[in-house]
Each structure stands twice: as C-alpha cells, then as structure tokens.
Design goal:
heterodimer, A: about 110 residues, mainly beta, 10 strands, B: about 120 residues, seven-stranded mixed β-sheet, four-stranded antiparallel β-sheet
C-alpha cells in the first residue's frame, strides 16, 4: 500500500466545487504535487509545491496543505475535468518519491 | 518546449530484461532529475527511480535489486533496464523530467509505452 492515501473515487455536480485529498505523514515536511490523467493519456502536472499552478493550468485548480493532508480543490468543475488525479510527494524517510493511489473524479 | 519520447520492445518474456530509452528534445538534460515511472493496467503510478544529470541515481527500494538507470548526455537520452521480469511488471512505462529534492514534481512526461511481460 502507498504511503500517500487517496479516496478511490469522488463525484461532483457540474459547476460545483470539489476537494480531493491526499494523506500521509511525509506531507508534514515535504511539498505535494498533483497530476491529472485522462484515459489513455500521460499524467499532466496541475499543482506543484503545494499550491502553485504551471503555466496553462486553469485557475479553477488550486492546492493547499494542512498538517498531514494535502488537498486539490476544483472550483466550478467542468465536464473536461473528469479524470484520475494523483498526488505525489516523498516517502516518510524523505529519500524517495511516492505517489498516492489516485482518485477518480466523476463530474455529474 | 521540452518533449520526451519512450522507445523499446513492447513485449518481454518472463525472466528476461526489460530495456527502454527516453529521448529528450527541446531542452538540455542538465540540472534536472530524469525519472522512470510505471502504471500497471487499471492501477496507480509507481515511481521506479531517477538519475541526475551528473549520474547520481536513486531507486524505489522495492525495485532496487532489479533496476538500473543510465544517462547518455551526448545523445540527450536516458535508459532503464529491469531484469528478471515477471507478469507483475506489465505496465505502461513513462519517462518524466523531475525537480528534486527541494521540490518534488514532474513537469514533462513522455506519452508512455506499454510493456507486456509474457511467457
């Protein structure tokens, strides 16, 4: 099992706000990053350093971190946001990269 | 615009060695960490390891005994070798550019290549 824990599935109504969480002890000390992955495609970085967006990522995506939990918030979900979302940080020792198990987001 | 492209056999036999190469274009291989990440069918992402442009490597402890990552700066390429493969190594393999250790994220990814391990 991963050292970063994510809910397997989350749903949100079109236009509403949803928060996807990632829990792990290492998040108290290290940055989290988030990736969006659509079927058959490579992951795309949407948030890094807890709350920074790469160029080209819509501002409806935002990140935060509190204690052992990192969150990705989607404000005003669109149909095209339906995808798997993966969190990423370090393991508890701080020596290695780890990913969460991924959360499947359904936009209703 | 940095682009990464994986190449290598799509089918490997059980107990043999998986070999993949990632070609990096549109940017220098310097000052970054170059990663291999895999995704078994229907599952999450699994970090395999990375190599820094100076040749330093770091591997997932669960795979360390079977994995080797190397770098060819003259060709702007890096490679993965995984020996003694089993069906559990069947996955889409991605190469990705990473920033580490102060940050921890992967900003450019290849499209991925499916490697199937069969007998």
């Amino acid at each position: 099992s991963s050292e970063l824990t994510q809910d397997p599935a989350v749903s949100v109504a079109l236009g509403q706000t949803v928060r996807i969480t990632c829990q792990g002890d290492s998040l108290r000390s290290y940055y989290a990053s988030w990736y969006q992955q659509k079927p058959g495609q490579a992951p795309v970085l949407v948030v890094y350093g807890n709350n920074n967006r790469p160029s080209g990522i819509p501002d409806r995506f935002s990140g935060s971190n509190s204690g052992d939990t990192a969150s990705l918030t989607l404000t005003g979900a669109q149909a095209e946001d339906e995808a798997d979302y993966h969190c990423n940080s370090r393991d508890a020792s701080g020596n290695y990269t780890v990913f969460g198990g991924g959360t499947k987001l359904t936009v209703l | 615009q940095v682009q990464l492209q994986e190449s290598g056999p799509g089918l490997v036999k059980v107990s043999e060695t998986l070999s993949l190469t990632c070609n990096v274009s549109g940017g220098s291989i310097s000052d970054y960490y170059w990663n291999w990440i895999r995704q078994p069918p229907g599952k999450g992402l699994d970090w395999i390891g990375h190599i820094y442009y100076n040749g330093d490597t770091n591997y997932n402890p669960s795979l360390k005994s079977r994995v080797s990552i190397s770098l060819d700066t003259s060709k702007n390429q890096f490679s993965l070798k995984m020996n003694s493969v089993t069906a559990a190594d069947t996955a889409v393999y991605y190469c990705a550019r990473g920033l580490w250790p102060n940050w921890n994220y992967h900003d450019y990814w290849g499209q991925g290549t499916l490697v199937t391990v069969s007998s």
